[in-house]
Write a structure and sequence with these properties.
This is Rho termination factor. By secondary structure, this protein is mostly helical. The chain has 4 helices and no strands. The longest helix is centred in the middle third of the chain and has 13 residues. The relative contact order is 0.14.
């Protein structure tokens, strides 16, 4: 059973699953809440299975600085730590 993460996380199961996959707390909460509200589509594929362009687009959406010069591995690390 999922732990209760308080009112700031709408879907505790999704939040915990994303944290287990290496997503940051902030990003896990954002995705879990979006899925709960059915507002945003989420690409559930692991970062390693996505193209560099897909990772770049996601980094751009959330405002990661320096993404133009990053390798695929650097983009993955930046997205996980955001």
């Amino acid at each position: 059973m999922a732990k209760d993460h308080g009112s700031s996380v709408k879907n505790d199961d999704t939040y915990e699953e994303l944290r287990d996959q290496g997503y940051s707390k902030e990003k896990s909460a954002r995705i879990a809440n979006a899925q709960s509200n059915d507002n945003v589509e989420h690409d559930s594929r692991p970062y390693e299975e996505r193209t560099k362009d897909e990772l770049y687009d996601e980094a751009q959406e959330i405002g990661i600085e320096g993404r133009s010069d990053m390798t695929k591995d650097e983009l993955i690390e930046a997205l996980r730590n955001h």
